[in-house]
Design a protein that fits this description.
By secondary structure, this protein is of the alpha+beta class. The chain has five helices and five strands; from the N terminus they run αββαββαβαα. Strands 2-1-3-4-5 form a five-stranded antiparallel beta sheet. β1 and β2 form a beta hairpin. α2 crosses α3.
Length: 173
């Protein structure tokens, strides 16, 4: 089940990408946990947030076509980090795991026309960094290092390991 969290996602002074995404994931998980109906002791709530970090600046989702163009133009032919913060909150004993996963992506040297064509597809509008590696955005990427699923937006292998550590392995079956 998905329970959207009503969270204001603004950075605190001196906060880096890992700290920011872990904090937002924690707030989202706790907000969602308060709204989960019929909770069982073994239930786990997952909160997550993904951002792009370029030159120590965090980049989220574009708000319109112009911001998508600006973001993709800045990323062009450069390497950036994709950081996802995750909070796993076990309802029964309130135990939790909070962590962040970072991957590196290098964009190729694409043209302004390629950016405009990609924006016309509509895909960039709800994606951190204005691209989706699992979609048409893969054509903008030269290479990546790290977790592919993290770049998509949810680091599955790392989440599975943390769930096992919370004694929630049965969820993975």
């Amino acid at each position: 089940m998905v329970f959207p969290a009503a969270v204001v996602e603004s950075m605190l002074p001196g906060e880096d990408g890992r700290s920011f995404t872990r904090r937002i994931a924690f707030v989202k998980a706790n907000d969602a946990a308060r709204n989960v109906p019929d909770q069982l002791p073994g239930d786990v709530v997952l909160g997550a947030d993904t951002v792009i970090e370029l030159d120590h600046e965090l980049i989220g989702k574009p708000c319109d076509d112009k911001s998508a163009f600006r973001i993709l133009a800045r990323l062009r032919h450069r390497q950036h980090k994709v950081i996802t913060g995750v909070c796993l909150l076990k309802i029964g004993d309130r135990s939790q795991k909070i962590f962040a996963v970072s991957s590196e992506v290098t964009m190729r040297d694409y043209s302004d026309q390629e950016i405009r064509d990609y924006i016309r597809s509509g895909e960039p509008m709800d994606k951190a960094g204005a691209y989706a590696i699992q979609g048409k955005g893969k054509d903008l990427i030269e290479e990546y290092r790290g977790s592919y699923t993290n770049i998509v937006g949810l680091p599955i292998d790392e989440i599975a390991a943390e769930l096992r550590d919370l004694d929630c392995a049965e969820i993975l079956l």
